[in-house]
Specification:
The complex is a heterodimer of chains A (about 280) and B (about 500).
Chain A lengths: L2 E10 L2 E7 L1 H6 L5 E5 L7 E5 L2 E3 L4 E7 L3 H7 L6 E2 L1 E6 L10 E7 L3 H13 L3 E8 L8 H7 L2 E6 L6 E2 L3 H9 L6 E5 L2 H13 L4 E4 L15 E4 L2 E4 H4 L2 E3 L5 H8 L3 H15 L6
Helix pairs in contact in A: 5-6, 6-8
Chain B lengths: L2 H14 L4 H6 L26 H9 L8 H5 L6 H10 L2 H11 L3 H7 L11 H5 L9 H14 L15 E5 L3 H12 L3 E5 L8 H4 L8 H13 L3 E3 L10 H6 L5 E4 L5 E2 L12 E3 H10 L18 E5 L3 H12 L4 E6 L10 H9 L3 E4 L1 E8 L5 E14 L5 E5 L5 E4 L2 E4 L3 E2 L3 H5 L24 E3 L2 H4 L4 H20 L2
Parallel strand pairs in B: 1-2, 1-4, 2-3, 4-16, 6-14, 7-8, 7-14, 8-9
Antiparallel strand pairs in B: 5-15, 10-11, 11-12, 11-13
Helix pairs in contact in B: 1-3, 3-5, 3-9, 5-6, 6-9, 7-9, 10-19, 14-15
Classes of the chains: A alpha/beta (about 280), B alpha/beta (about 500).
The complex binds flavin-adenine dinucleotide (FAD) (2 copies), iron/sulfur cluster and FE2/S2 (inorganic) cluster.
The site of FE2/S2 (inorganic) cluster (FES) has 12 residues of chain A, from loops.
């Protein structure tokens, strides 16, 4: 079965959003779950991407991705009407949603995409949602309007101060944790290093914190063990036991090392691809 | 005298009825022609090349046609061994193939990967006479010869399908068990859909067992046959997530379900350093290499794999041999196989152990890793092992390996592949209420492969634990018969 791109939008340099036909996945998808996309079947890479939204009636899912390497760059070259051959999912355990009181949702960079359906679900469940969205610089901030719609409060931070506060997400997070009443839950999704420091921050105040991990995956069904992480001293498979875990128990240092496993080969593949296709990657 | 002359002479005696058992014993066991051991380190093509017609008939003539045919007892699906061998002697290869097909649906696969030396060839009278199982009649190679002959005839036919019954059956997983169930249930006229999580069908036969042992094209032909019979195949569909078994029954109207999801949960050793970069489960290593064809990285395949120089593979089964031999083909200069018992206890097929040695893999027997050592970047640099000796037999009947204290030593490696077995994948169990599992997470079935749920059957590795292709097929047959029976009364 092939899956047609029904819309495509560039949200910021190197970040794309598409609504894509996948009726079975759309019908079953819950916040927090992801799919594995395989561009052309055959021997193309299997790319895990979070389901950033689903419309069961239309039979579509929304994917938002950052073009970082060969496969995601190739995905970014597709136009409306083009198709990808395989989409497997929904995978992973859905987010545990209930009334926690105040929920702080912290998104970093592309992490805003998987965070949005979770924030939406938390709001629906009657929580007060405070969103902290961080980006390196103004033009890299995505989904601000969508977050506004589901948040009671929204705080924007940029590394260079070009928009919102000049701070890291951990700045406002620390303040929110200090205020009474303490948040009932924090959800942090973004680069591993950001999640690590968010967890270090909330730990001080004993605020339970959920993170969504994006380790390297192959099958996504618990068969290969490639996505394994150490959580509370135990081996867990992100694709079936996660992708969400108690952030205070995750061994982030190990995870960050494992994510670098193929750095050299990935760089080589991207170089060759760019060369072959003569594509000018957007600046 | 060349082989052809020998064969002609023997056939003449055979016709005259003057071929004596002693003549048969004098026929040299036919070796398997194979790719040169140096050349094949550089390619992924099949290693064993298959018998010539002359060889096959000579080997077939070694069979004594024992009245009681003890070989058949050793075969899990009871192939009529002496009957099909007779037909080979006579040159009636089509007949031989038909006889095998009565009991085995995937002879080209079984002829290649069955552990014959512990099944049909173990009780063979000829091997007993020579007190050497390797001198038994090479039943597996003959089975392979016949099926390869059949494939060369470009036979496009597929099994006949009975008139439509209007009943629908879902088969979950496209491994050997699933393929057999789909065939047998479809033959009875039911509407069959196979659901497969991967984008390629064939189960372990395509993502685990490497091309050099079982070419993908052979498995693909079986899938093509299924499609020709009108079996629907849905790839990229993970039952339990895309839809649950309950939904398949209640929403999609499936009347019966076969669960053949295999044993896909890799086990680790639980030692220090197991999460370092460069430590793989055999499943990941083999999937990257086989299914994603990482050996063609940059030449059409996008999935990378470690470009290792020194690899240690831990384990002694087929999975370990396949990993070690794959590492060789990926260009590793040194490949060590680390196994905690001795060669005698190795569960791998004898033939594959031979092949591995020929390809230069170094065996470290009675050794086991104690910890994995890495550098500041978290990348593997070495393993520290302990030496072992064999003690009393344990529950498995094999002698228990006992570590020798203070015997630690270090092997420098950049990659470690852990091939110590697979547990049951928990997904189906977690998402199917009322399905009874044992304490290891395997599905419990009765003698008809029926589970605790009405209309739901299961077989293969998810029931047996990591087992074999032929056992999965055997259970598939049983389950299919039970499903056909069940649907009659429904
Ligand atoms: C559960 C999950 C959800 C994700 N959701 C999103 C999302 O919504 N949007 C988004 O932009 N990205 C998401 N990612 C990350 C995305 O899958 C990777 O960026 C992508 O696979 C990189 O592929 P590439 O070939 O373009 O880059 P490469 O050059 O191959 O790799 C670039 C970096 O991406 C990571 N990566 C590489 N291969 C994989 C792989 N198979 N699985 C996971 N990470 C890999 C590595 O850290 C690597 O250094 C998610 C990852 C996971 C595991
Ligand atoms: C490397 C290796 C080498 C081996 N060598 C040999 C050998 O030489 N000889 C031998 O006899 N045996 C060998 N085996 C064992 C043999 O391959 C297995 O016993 C056999 O394949 C089991 O068959 P199965 O039908 O149970 O399913 P499997 O072959 O395990 O296939 C199960 C299929 O189900 C799919 N699946 C899983 N979960 C789901 C889900 N939820 N929804 C949809 N699909 C799903 C999987 O993707 C897979 O394709 C080897 C195994 C390995 C790993
Ligand atoms: S036991 Fe050996 S010799 Fe006897 S019938 Fe079987 S294959 Fe032939
Ligand atoms: S991706 Fe293979 S086990 Fe998680």
């Amino acid at each position: 079965m092939s899956h047609k791109l029904l819309s495509k939008k560039q949200l910021c340099p190197n970040v794309y959003m598409t609504d894509i036909e996948a009726p079975l996945v759309a019908a079953a998808a819950r916040p927090g779950q992801f799919v594995i996309v395989c561009l052309a079947g055959g021997y193309s890479e299997r790319i895990p991407l979070t389901i950033a939204g689903a419309d069961a009636k239309k039979g579509t899912i929304r994917l938002i991705w950052q073009a970082v390497g060969k496969s995601t760059v190739e995905l970014g070259q597709l136009k409306v009407g083009d198709s990808v051959e395989n989409i497997l999912g929904p995978l992973g355990k859905p987010t545990h949603v209930e009334k926690f009181g105040t929920v702080v949702c912290i998104g970093g960079g592309i992490g805003n995409a998987p965070l949005l359906p979770i924030a939406t679900a938390m709001k629906k469940a009657g929580n007060k949602v405070i969103s902290i969205l961080g980006a390196r610089t103004r033009e890299l901030l995505i989904l601000e309007e969508d977050f506004k719609a589901v948040s009671d409060e929204i705080i924007i931070v940029t590394d260079d101060g070009s928009y919102g506060r000049k701070a890291l997400v951990t700045g406002p997070l620390d303040e929110i944790c200090q205020a009474a009443p303490k948040p009932g839950l924090a959800v942090a999704i973004g680069p591993a290093i950001m999640m690590k420091f968010c967890c270090a921050t909330t730990k001080k105040y004993d605020v339970p914190t959920v993170v969504s991990l994006n380790t390297i995956m192959i099958d996504g069904t618990g068969m290969c063990g490639g996505c394994r992480v150490e959580v509370g001293g135990q081996t867990k498979f992100v694709c079936v036991d996660g992708p969400e875990f108690d952030g205070h128990l995750v061994n982030f240092d190990l995870m960050m090392k494992r994510m670098q496993a193929y750095k050299k080969q990935e760089a080589q593949a991207l170089e060759e691809y760019k060369h072959k296709c003569k594509i000018g990657l957007d600046k | 005298m060349n082989q052809q002359q020998l064969l002609d002479e023997l056939l003449k005696k055979h016709k005259d009825g003057t071929l004596k058992p002693s003549d048969r014993f004098n026929i040299p066991p036919q070796p398997m022609p194979q790719q040169d051991s140096v050349e094949r380190r550089k390619n992924v093509n099949e290693v064993a090349l298959g018998y010539t017609e002359t060889q096959a008939r000579l080997e077939a003539l070694r069979c004594l046609q024992c009245k009681n045919a003890p070989c058949v007892e050793g075969c899990p699906v009871r192939i009529k061994i002496k009957e099909f061998i007779t037909e080979i002697v006579e040159g009636n290869f089509q007949k031989a193939l038909d006889i095998i097909r009565e009991n085995s649906l995937l002879p080209a696969v079984c002829g290649r990967v069955c552990p014959q030396e512990v099944q049909c060839q173990l009780p063979c009278t000829v091997g007993k006479k020579f007190k050497d199982v390797e001198k038994s009649v090479s039943i597996g190679r003959l089975e392979r010869f016949v099926s390869d002959w059949g494939r060369k005839q470009h036979d496009q036919s597929s099994p006949a399908v009975a008139a439509a019954t209007g009943k629908k059956v879902a088969v979950i997983g496209s491994g050997p068990g699933g393929i057999v169930v789909a065939t047998d249930v479809r033959r009875a006229g039911h509407d069959v859909t196979v659901f497969e999580a991967f984008h390629k069908t064939g189960g372990v036969m395509v993502y685990g067992i490497p091309e050099f042992r079982l070419p993908k094209a052979i498995v693909q032909e079986e899938i093509d046959t299924l499609e020709k019979m009108g079996v629907k195949i849905v790839r990229n569909f993970v039952v339990g997530r895309t839809k649950t078994i309950k939904q398949l029954i209640e929403e999609d109207g499936f009347d019966a379900v076969y669960v053949g999801v295999g044993a896909g949960l890799p086990m680790f050793m639980g030692i220090e350093g197991e999460h370092l970069v460069g430590v793989y489960s055999a499943n990941e290593y083999l999937t990257r290499a086989n299914l994603m064809r990482a050996y063609d990285f940059g030449k059409g395949a996008d999935t990378p794999i470690a470009m290792s120089k020194r690899v240690a593979v831990v384990g002694g089964g087929n999975v370990a041999m396949d990993s070690a031999r794959t590492a060789v083909r990926l260009g590793a200069e040194k490949v060590y196989l680390v196994y905690r018992r001795s060669e005698k206890e190795m569960p791998a097929r004898v033939e594959e152990v031979h092949h591995a040695k020929e390809e230069g893999i170094e065996f470290h027997l009675l050794r086991n890793p104690k910890k994995i050592i890495g550098n500041a970047e978290g990348v593997v640099t070495a393993i520290e092992c302990l030496k072992f000796e064999l003690g009393e037999p344990d529950a498995s009947g094999r002698r228990r390996p006992v570590p020798i204290e203070g015997s630690e030593f270090i092997i420098d490696v950049d990659t470690v592949v852990v091939a110590i077995g697979n547990g049951a994948n928990p997904l189906i169990g977690q998402t199917t209420d009322g399905l009874t599992l044992n304490k290891w997470g395997n599905i419990i079935v009765d003698e008809n492969c029926k589970t605790s749920l009405e209309g739901v059957y299961a077989g293969g590795d998810i029931v047996l634990g990591a087992a074999t292709v032929i056992l999965a097929m055997g259970q598939g047959r049983t389950a299919a018969a039970a499903i056909n029976e069940y649907l009659k009364s429904k």
